[in-house]
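Data deposition worksheet. Section B asks for the primary sequence of the deposited chain exactly as it was used as input, without tags or linkers unless they were present during the calculation. Section C holds the resulting structure in token form. Section D is free text for depositor observations; keep each observation to a single sentence. Incomplete worksheets are returned to the depositor.
Section A, Depositor: J.P.
Section B:
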Amino acid sequence: MNFARGIALAWLALGWPLAAQELTMSAEDYYQQVMRNPNLKIEGRVTGEDFCWHAAYSADDFVRAYQAYGDTAWLDQGQRYFDWLVSLMAKAPDGYRGWIGPYIYGPQVWSDVHVGDAILVSPMLHFAEVVLGDSVLAARYGDRARAYVDLARRDLMEKWDARGTWRVDGEGGAYVSWDQYLEPGKLEAWKKLGADKSMLSLPYNKQMDVGLIALRLYRLTGEEQFRERARRIFWQFKSRLQYFDGHYGWNYWEPQGLWDLDEAGQVRHWVNVHPHRNYQAREVAFIAEAYHTGVVFDQIDLERILRTNLGVMWNGDAAEPQWRNADGRGPWQAGPEDETGTLWTALGDFSQTVRELQALQVREGGLAQAYYQRVALREPPGFARKHAAAELALPSFPFSECREVTLAAALPRVMRAGTSAALICKARVPGELEVGLYTVGGTLKKVLFQGRIEGGLDGLEGFALVRWDGTDPEGGERYAGKYRVRWTLGGEYREVEVVIE
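Section C:
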């Protein structure tokens, strides 16, 4: 396995790396080791998304080591590392700063990107939460902590809004990649240079990376705008969850708007459960953060996700645990190199079983073990929220039992009568599909489509798309108000609430 691949798998697997370092390694030694990473040896001020992934690998270790050991030397070295990262930010033509460098999907152009910003700013905000939550630490590190908050506010949240990459649809929202790039080495002007994946909705892991920034900014500032942004991001994700057999499933990437379809009505990206175990592990860590902050998710959601991890993905053998992917496909595998499933360690807050399985994974004598024993086990497992009240008014979703329809979406969810929308689904198996318009109370209003769907397990097959303008396709009646679009296949269905204006 090459170095870059190893970093990606290790960092993504748990959502935080905490490499197994000997307890005798000092914070200074650890910093020097991090800086010896050859992937951080940049030319001048050229960074970019690939650099950000490598730089993020160890970024949160400094704060977690302080939490585990209580030694402020780790905060000193963390601040040193963060300030070095900030010094590498370049000013773009619009005045905002970012880690600008070769675009990961087309290195012939340069850019900064949402996820690059998020994965480097997130550990800075973790630092800020720890520091500003302690008066003694705040007296020493508070100025830098507040500077990181200001950076996140302006050069991440404000920046991507100003660039027009945030899209709201009803109660939900999603980010799209930008379509402006720089010629290599030239930071004077943005240009439309036709790079791959421009103006395409970000996959869920990257949406929720920004969602985590919003959660932390809300907790740090108390400003409702950040809670609202996080709510819309996680609302959008939860509205797309597939429910059956008491658990949830979800795709890595789904279309969020008409911009994600080409002129022929084909989805511009693949849609499926990610085949690599690490992606969903990180997404579950974000879900846990949202739950603890009182955003969107409730205890039932966490119990269903636990059933996915422990009921679908695990072989049930604590002595010799084996794992498979969250969609129940693929072989059972064990060991650090497998990519078909893993323990979602972020669920240890809620499950003793997860904690016991995690204890089998952490290596002795290292930072990961210290954090697990001294921080993760500090409180017994349960569903108490860390950052919010127990009783909250949370949104409800029309979940129904459906095994085979893996995507169901109305693009947009809020539509204007007479304007074309796309009702799109994806199925794993062939069969007779019905797409119907129902009242909120469950009464069939109109069948919009009836026909065969071929289905398919590949991420590029099994789609069915119905174009609809919000009117009766036979009588021309204009519908208005709240309805539900229902996709029925094999006697089971999924549905989405829509608003026709």
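Section D:
The longest helix spans residues 135-162.
Residues 405-500 form a domain with the Immunoglobulin-like fold (CATH 2.60.40.2950).
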